[in-house]
Amino acid sequence: MNKPSVSFFKKLFANGIRPLKLVSLAFVLFCGLLVQAQPDTQIRGFVDFGTNYKNDQVNFTLGEQDLFITSDISDRVSFLGESVFKFSANSPTKFDVSIERIILKYNIKGNHNVLFGKHHTPVNYWNDSYHHGRVLFPTIFRPMMFDMGVVPLHTTGLRFQGQNLGKLRFGYDALIGNGVASTDAIDINKMKSVMLGAHITPKDGLRIGLSYYQDYIPKGAALHHSSNVSKQNVKQALYSGSVSYFGSKYELLAESSMVVNKNDSTGVNVSPTAYIYAGYRTKYKLVPYMRVDLLNFSSEEVLFSNKRQRGALVGLRYEINYLTVLKLEYNYTESMSMANHSSMTNTRAINFQFAIGF
Amino acid sequence: MKKIVTKLLFGFILIASIISLPSATPVEESSIMVIANVKGAPTSLTMKELKSIFQGEKQRWNDGTKISIAFMKSSTPIGRATASKVLNMSGDQLNKFWLALVFQGKAKAPVFFGSSNEVESFVSQNPGSIGVVDAGYQLKDSRVISIEGKKSF
Predict the structure, then answer these.
(1) Cβ-based contacts of A136 with chain B (< 8 Å)
(2) Count of C-beta atoms within a 10 Å radius of residue B21
(3) Given a cut of 80, is residue B70 above it in pLDDT?
(4) Mean pLDDT of A209-219
(5) pTM above 0.80, yes or no
(6) C-beta atoms surrounding B25 within 10 Å
(7) pLDDT (0 to 100) of residue A16
(8) Quick check: B115 and B8 in contact, CB under 8 A?
(9) HSE, side-chain direction, 13 A CA sphere, residue B134
(10) FRET label pair with A358: which of A121, A134, A166, A196, CA 20 to 30 Å apart?
C-alpha cells in the first residue's frame, strides 16, 4: 500500500510557512467567512418502514431514518450534511450510522460552485437526485445496478458544479476523489477517481445526461458501497447515459451504464447494465408503474458478480401528500451464470412501503 | 401466493381510493402581487424570468445579490395561486419540487409564511429577497415588481 504524498506540505513548510501559521491562517479565513453569517439552518428527514411477503412468510421491516441538515453559513458558503441510521445484522447494536454526505459549497459566481466533502457521485439521475430520500423514490428500492456495486455511490473529494446555464439549462459536474476502494479519511493509493458529467434540461421535467467515471481498484480491495472484493488490479471506466421525464401525467426514467474493467488476468471485461422505469399519474394521485433491470456481467468479470442479473417489478404508488407516500410492489429477479446458462435462480417478493418526510 | 397478492392489491386500492375522494369543488384563484426588497431585483420581470427564479434556476440578481424566496404556505389561497399561476403546479407539487431541490443541495429553500404581512416583513428586511402577497395588500417597506407589465395577476 502506498503512503500519501507529503511533498506538497514539505515544500510549503520549507518556504517558511510553519504548520501553526497554516492552521491559524485557515482559522482566520474561516472566521472571515462567518463574519457576515446569518445562519439559516434547517433539519429535515425521511423515514420508511414496510412489510414484505417472501419465501411463504410475511416480514415487517424497518427501513432507514435519514436526517439531512442544510445551512447557509454566509452569502456564498453553505453546508449540507446527511446521516442515515439503519438496521445492520453485523452491528453489536443491530444499527449502523453512516455519513452519507458532508458538503461545504462555495458559490464562485452565478450558478457555478465548488464543493468539498463527501458527495453522492453524480454519474446518473438517480444517484444525483434521490440519495436516501425514500419519499422521493419512484419505486420502493433502488435499481439493481446500485445493489450490484456498478454505480460508485459516493466520492470524497473536490467537485466543480454548474447548473441551469443558458437556454437548454446546461449543467456540468467535474469531481476528483478518493475512489470506491478508499475510505472517507484516506486514499489507499495515489490514483484518484475522476468523474465528468453534463446534462441539459430542454423543457420542464425532462433531463438528458451523460457521464464518464474512471477509477483504479487494487487487488484485494473491498468496494465501499458493496460487498465486492476485487480479485485483480482493475482499471475501471464507467460510461453512463440517462433520460428522465417527470411530467404531470407521464413518468419515464431510463439509465444505462457500461462498465469497462481492465485487468492483467482476464483482460478487458465489458459489462452493460441498464434499467427503465415508467409510470402514469392518474388524477387521484395513484401512480401505477413498472421497472425492468438488466445487468449483463462479463463471464470473466473480476470485480462484480459474473452472473447475468435481471429483474422486473410492477407497483402502485399513492402520494397522500408530498411528505407521505405508500407503495405496493411485486418484484421478480433472476440470476444466471454466464459460464453455465442452465443454472438459473430466481426470487419473487411482494413489498409494501410507507415512506414519510418531515 | 395468488390469494395474498389479490388481497394486498385490493386492500391498497381500497385505502388509496378512500383517502383520495375528491373533497372540494374548484374555486376561483386569488390575484397575486410580486414584491421585492429594494436591493437586488429589477423593477419588472417577464413571467419566464419569474418562473426561473421560483424554480431555483436563477439564484443571484444581476448585481450579484443572492436571491431569497418568500412564499405563502400552500395551504393558503395565495400559496396555491402562486404555484398554479407561475409554475403550473399544485401546492403539493411545488412543495415536493422544492424538497427535492433542497435535498439535492442545489438551491436554498424558500421561506413559507402564513400571511402577506409576514411575507412583506421578511422581504423588506432581507436584501435580494422576492415574495408573493395578496394583490390587495398595502405595501409598507418593499416594492412591487411588475410581471409582463402588470402589477398583479
Answers:
(1) 96, 99-100, 103
(2) 7
(3) yes
(4) 94
(5) yes
(6) 5
(7) 46
(8) no
(9) 11
(10) A121
Q: Is the dihedral of CA A314, A318, A321, A324 positive or negative?
A: negative
Task: Assess contact for A114 and A108: CB atoms under 8 A.
Answer: yes
- CB under 8 Å to A149, separation ≥6 — which residues? A223, A225, A226, A227, A228, A303, A304
Residue A266 grid cell: 482476464
User: Which of B5, B52, B95 is closest, CB to CB, to A330?
Assistant: B5
**Residue A267: how many other CB atoms lie within 10 Å:** 10
* Best CA proximity match to A133, nearest among A322, A355, A329, A327: A355
Residues 50-69 of A with CB under 8 A from B: 53, 56, 68
Output the nine-digit C-alpha cell for B124.
423588506
Inspect the interface and report whether the beta carbons of B20 and A285 lie closer than 8 Å. Answer: yes
Q: What percent of chain A has pLDDT over 90?
A: 63
Question: Are A134 and A46 in contact, with CB atoms under 8 Å apart?
Answer: yes
A327 in B contact zone (CB under 8 Å): no
**Main-chain phi, psi angles of A145, to 5 degrees:** -60, -25
SS3 track for A9-39: HHHHHHCCCCHHHHHHHHHHHHHHHHHCCCC
The pLDDT tens digits of the residues spanning A248-288 come to: 899 999 999 999 999 888 889 999 999 999 999 998 789 99
